[in-house]
## 1
Amino acid sequence: MDFFKLKEHNTDVKTEVTAGMTTFMAMLYIVPVNASILSVAGMPYDALITATIVMTIFASILNGLWSNTPVAMSVGMGLNAYFSFGLVKGMGMSWQSALGVVFLSGILYILISMTPLRRWLLETIPIDIKRAVSAGIGAFIAFIGLQQSKIIVDSQATLVTMGDFKDPHVLLALVGLALAIFFTLKRYRSALMLSILLTTLLAWVTGIEELPQSFISMPASMAPIAFELDIGSVLTLSMLPVILIFLITDMFDTLGTLTGVGMRANLFKGKKSLPLQKTIEADAFATMVSGLAGVTSTTSFIESAAGVEEGGRTGLSAIVTGLLFVLPLFLLPFFASIPSNAIYPILVVIGVMMFSELRHIDYEDDAIKYSTFFILFGMPLTYSITNGLLLGSIVYAFVHVVKGDYKQIDIAMGVLAVVALLVFFVL
């Protein structure tokens, strides 16, 4: 085990295995949740279950071996919702073309992660804009969760209104939401998966959903979605903003997660930390592969913090997490029997977690204040992460120009503002 330098990191095999098991339990929810979200785009659910698990195994083990950090990876929340509800449902793209966007963003991510451009891009976009983007994505996926569970429904008079709380399916979603909040507040390590399990059990007991005939089967084939991406259809100027949004959002998500986990475990020291650099490289490569496998961008999972709390300090714990994800491959009938209204409340809770980034934003800065508003509301109201960020970029630049301090416009934000003007008024 000298490969993982356990003694140097003041840990041992038992501790790392325990940490890996803890992270596995904390992030198991991603399997049914991701498959449920992406299936809305018309992709086969069974294949998505397998692809999600395979990418989790691949990305987590890759990172453990490459960076030797206790960071597990899987298909990220936020972009998967944008994939189905923004690109496919909203823009009318085929899921094959949307996978092409994921693949190209992964290629760019790899190129950027190996050059000084990565550091420049991350440092020239204001930290408060990054926080606003995180909060906006949180609002976006929470809105999707409320809408898909029928807690909020459309209205001819007011666009949206409250759903029918007498509907058993809506009541099931409300129970699921209450359980998810309760277990999260109680800091249960498997809070989200536990709420899914109990809500599903309630659905079976009450007859809202049928109990499956079996819980175990051989893994479904990935063939219907693997290597089905359509790259040629997205090699257009009009698709550049969408590709960039996937790239930037994935980078923000990864950096934010690594900052939180790294600080707790004292993993990354300095901006030129080699473990940090290697973890970002592993994430970038896995994102490219995810487009080939038929799922959206992978990212570092904040649930890795649960393993860190158990003492995980090396890549061995990430590898243990990845290996444990082999088990769910044989539970397809169980995952297929989980009702959607046990899944969508999870989006609301995750959205709230992301939304809490707003508390760190400096509202004394007028450019930040106004751009945050348009980013935050632009994403859910236009059903697009791209539109929200581009709207915020225009407002950010406009406020600085009006105040006469246009020289204070960060280069990256200025570029985004120009791209936004082209997208909204030219393309």
## 2
Amino acid sequence: MAQIFPAWWNRLPIIAAIGGSVVPALAVAGVWYFFSPQYTDVGYQPVQPVAYSHRLHVGELGLDCRYCHASVEKSAVANVPPTQTCMNCHQTVKRDSPALAPIRESMQTGRPMRWVRVHELPEYAYFTHNMHVAAGIGCVTCHGRIDEMERVTQVAPLSMSWCLDCHRNPDPHRRPLSEITNMRWTPPRNGAVLAAQLARERPIAPPTDCSGCHR
């Protein structure tokens, strides 16, 4: 009696066994690689209700980060500035600009501006701005050169591994407290001397265990 199936069908169980183990592994690796924050969050640049230029306000006019984000040294959250902060200047500067109409409307109605958050950590991650500022971590470390951005863009992945790299070796990222908001500050040529000085003045021990950031 002639064979119904060709001989190569005998290899199907082996092929299925290999494919059943290799294909899922490749799929998991692909998702892990391409859907990591490095690829999904870096470059995020949402459109805001008002085209606020950090390059103009911070880079050209020299506005300090803490003028708008006033709670960054005292709170876990770096607040989004209220409308009144904008109007402190724009009651007189460009007071009739069409681009600022939403700001004026917010001031008149009392309805807050709905700014779109750019840097947002998941709820299961515990992060405090004030602790990082007190440790001497500059704004530019996590947010990049905001003073050069016409529209704020996320430049760091803010992933767990990215944070742990700094927690395990924070010295290269620390600076004097007077330079926290200075986007143009560069460490001295002998950075080890500064690192040793800062370690003596403000010793820190960033957590590297799970409970440090997941509470």
## 3
Amino acid sequence: MNAAITPALETRQLCKNFGALTVADDINFRLEPGARHALIGPNGAGKTTFVNMLTGALPSSSGRIFMDGQDITDMPQAARTQRGLGRTFQITSLFKSLPALDNVALGIAEREGIALSMWKPASGYKVIREEAMSQLEKMGLADEALTVVRDLPYGKQRLIEIAIALGLKPKVLLLDEPAAGVPSIESGRILDVLAELPKEIAILIIEHDMDLVFRFAQRITVLVQGAVLTEGTPDDIANDQRVRDVYLGEGGHD
């Protein structure tokens, strides 16, 4: 990697302790601009804890976090989102009683700082509605725009969550297990959508579906017991005996 290129996201000696328990241990990590990067590791590796620190959902104990070269360690979550840090969750955080269109529209309204009235849904604003429809079309969900989310298959709910994250116009997108709980026939669609995302967005995917990881990622970081075990290309990782011993060979889950 070219050290002269400013990483889209970077951590330096990032640590997190809960009392005597260390869950993130001196993590040095770089996400390059436009990267397609995966973070994997066995059960309890600390992957979600790491992502929570990146987004500001969880404060770090020590170390620093940088986005485009700026120190964001002490920034609140909302400020990181405004700077272009988007995120999806292990479990969907959708408004399941609302249509897909309104879910995406709410995210866009938040990005634009539009104060919504109690009697007018976000999709009632023409500009927001048009952009929300455009995001749903990219996900192949235009026909489901007016369907209440709870009535959609889980795989499509995950796609809606990605659409919401993209509606925030992120520079960096963190996808926390986008295929979790999704039947394999639908996870293929998620991979197709990821392949079609704008090349300038740096993407970090945290995922247990190794087929998806190896098809998506150009680089993979392996986290074990809160520390980076190794990082490399998919071929490097697949052929690393240490990785096989602690993760790939056992089919571990976080």
